[in-house]
Amino acid sequence: MVSKPPAGDPVQDAPQVTPPQHAAAGLPAIGHTLRIAQEQMGLRRTARTLLKVNQKDGFDCPGCAWPEGDKRHVAEFCENGAKAVAEEATLRRVTPEFFAAHPVADLATRSGYWLGQQGRITQPMLLPEGGERYEPVSWERAFAIIAEELRALASPDEALFYTSGRTSNEAAFLLQLFAREFGTNNLPDCSNMCHESSGSALTETIGIGKGSVSLEDLHRADLIIVAGQNPGTNHPRMLSALEEAKASGARIISVNPLPEAGLERFKNPQTPQGMLKGTALTDLFLQIRIGGDQALFRLLNKLVLETAGAVDEEFVRDHTHGYEEFAAAAKAADWDETLAATGLARSEIERALEMVLASERTIVCWAMGLTQHKHSVPTIREVVNFLLLRGNIGRPGAGVCPVRGHSNVQGDRTMGIFERPAPAFLDALDKEFGIVSPRRHGFDVVRSIQALRDGEAKVFFAMGGNFVGATPDTEVTEAAMRNARLTVHVSTKLNRSHAVTGTRALILPTLGRTDKDVQKSGRQFVTVEDSMSLVHASRGNLPPASPHLLSEPAIVARMARAVLGEGSATPWEEFEADYARIRDRIARVVPGFEDFNARLAADPGGFALPHGPRDERRFPTKTGKANFTAAPVEYPRVPEGRLLLQTLRSHDQYNTTIYGLDDRYRGIRGGRRVVLVHPEDAAAFGLADGAYADLVSEWTDGTERRAPGFRVVHYPTSRGCAAAYYPETNVLVPLESTADVSNTPASKSVIVRLEQSASA
Ligand SMILES: Nc1nc2c(c(=O)[nH]1)N[C@H]1C(S)=C(S)[C@@H](COP(=O)(O)OP(=O)(O)OC[C@H]3O[C@@H](n4cnc5c(=O)[nH]c(N)nc54)[C@H](O)[C@@H]3O)O[C@H]1N2
Ligand SMILES: Nc1nc2c(c(=O)[nH]1)N[C@H]1C(S)=C(S)[C@@H](COP(=O)(O)OP(=O)(O)OC[C@H]3O[C@@H](n4cnc5c(=O)[nH]c(N)nc54)[C@H](O)[C@@H]3O)O[C@H]1N2
Ligand SMILES: [Mo]
Predict the structure, then answer these.
(1) What is the pLDDT of residue 72?
(2) Got the DSSP string for 443-503?
(3) Single pTM value for the model
(4) Ligand 1 pocket: which of 254, 646, 718 to mutate (most atoms <8 Å of CB)?
(5) Domains (ranges, CATH) in the chain?
(6) Closest residue (by CA) to atom 31 of ligand 1?
């Protein structure tokens, strides 16, 4: 299997490489922000828009899910948030003339960067059966086509309803309601590829799949461990929280195969002192091998167990279950095996232990570096064991902190976007709407692709996102998508998924976060939930990108009316006219949202959802306690002469949206086809810095996948490991290579060999 870089793709240009930087943000970040924002929006719109980001009367930043503090700065955004805003608030437009000039076959040759740079989509478009181009279509006709295809299915389970995490609570609630009224739980979402492993591990161990800390807790912690996360790029506002924590005496351990600039030093653009010198953040850098985290935490647990007085015995006795079995497993942890799995030195782990023992309040933060491996769920369970041992949950300054990706990915799940909904949730939904939701579990992302491939699913609907761009095994996935009868994308911008279609395809253009949303009852706002379970309003203030756009709630409501017709007693029209009516229903179905509208009116800054472990050390698990677990230690076994490749984000991208071709902190400019390799590993393949190599992944069934033409960059990553950007490398991730339990694609552990490129 070969993926050729698309013709005319600027990413083929030879990237410029300089040594990686050792500090993040500062002046260059401001300059970069303003340049990108102005290119897309012009000067006036830039000012008007950026000053509204994350303000109480403004819109929630469409970037990451990091929470806002209570005290807002005038400019409450970061470089990458500003890029996300600029990308959406751009003045560039994709009109019907554009589609007339660019047949689908042409779009299919373009890079994701080029597609995204064309601007906002202005009208609903249809690719008719056998057609070569998308043509303008009325909204009415578009919904009639969806109704026709959905009604023609042999079973509702032949339809898939995907959600990307930018969708508001209101739209998400309507979408899951529609899917269940229609008769399926096929609600895959981006979370399946993202923090599903965190959700699986946390639900089993503490009874709720969400983080247990607030910003306040971070500021009060003694020790913060940041494992498998690159906040300098992906959650830049987290750096301010880490800086504040350090100012109050916290220490930081970063666990990462790469030295990430943002974790080394932060130059806070909000303070003069920060701009000059900045704050060193990391006290101890554990440069771990990819996939070594479970072994590391297991050994730390053994060492804590062996230290007199280190275990919080009262907490363990009163609040936990499974301690004996866990302690037996932990005591068996082996130094030599841990050193082999982690690539760390004994002295480094001993230093970490000292810091752990000196801390009364410890927080562990993590993201994709922990969630996208075969053994991610046991890894995160081991992190929970680690925190439970010293009672670091449910008290100030301590807890679990999975740092979410998309700005409302957590809220979408709270609203019921889940292929395996809890029976209690469905009971409440059924009671409220007088429907009978299906109880059979639906398909997650990977199962959805398999269902399309195998002809079990025939209609694919996406509320945002870029399904074929974000999912693994690009060629398999694209072939699967082409099997569909109908593909529908509710989108703001063009992406790869619009070029890889079913027999018929629809593009439904929608309002974004920054757009003003006016419905029959007047101006609307929507709500979102951030990574720390805070719910708040988001209100766009720009004139919509085109008069033909519909909001996401309106699209779902109209689709539901077209599909369900008289058969539905749900007041879809009323929901479209006034989103407060949707919130009234959310208040009655979803725990924690009681008096939803009234509470938002009282404080537009929002409210925190209840969280048993955080609020009262109540653990809603099967045992009624926090569960210790005792899984065998796993780590990737990489055959001789192979490397373990992680696929990650550059500084100039938002998932599959490419803002630019630079990865400033890592010293890469003007290109994305790079592979970062330790100089000695590169030498073993006979590859000098600047050589070109094909990445060839090897899977257990003997198949190989190839991504050609990557510039080799000698880089200080841990030995035996390599890194390259997603989505270019998705072609290398076998569909069947997923995490146990959560079924999340193992995008951070791909076994590869490097071959000198034929063409270089
Ligand atoms: N600007 C911007 N912001 C974003 C996004 C974006 O694309 N751009 N994406 C959003 C989304 S959806 C998400 S999920 C988050 C993603 O946020 P991150 O998880 O920070 O994103 P990645 O680039 O995947 O980085 C993974 C990090 O984990 C490290 N890592 C890889 N493997 C291992 C391992 O085995 N062990 C350890 N300890 N570390 C490892 C990598 O070196 C890297 O530092 O960001 C969100 N925010
Ligand atoms: N190899 C590899 N694969 C990965 C990952 C990895 O680290 N490595 N990370 C995974 C992760 S963590 C995630 S979250 C997924 C991301 O998967 P997705 O969420 O599917 O992908 P995005 O690139 O975030 O989606 C971008 C598209 O969303 C649309 N969009 C933007 N704003 C809006 C809006 O307001 N409304 C609507 N309706 N549409 C909008 C635009 O059309 C844009 O092109 O990718 C996963 N895939
Ligand atoms: Mo994500």
Answers:
(1) 59
(2) --HHHHHHHHHTTS--EEEEESS-HHHHSSSHHHHHHHHHT-SEEEEEESB--GGGTS--S
(3) 0.96
(4) 646
(5) 25-88 (no CATH), 94-193+408-514+543-585 (3.40.50.740), 196-403 (3.40.228.10), 643-756 (2.40.40.20)
(6) 369
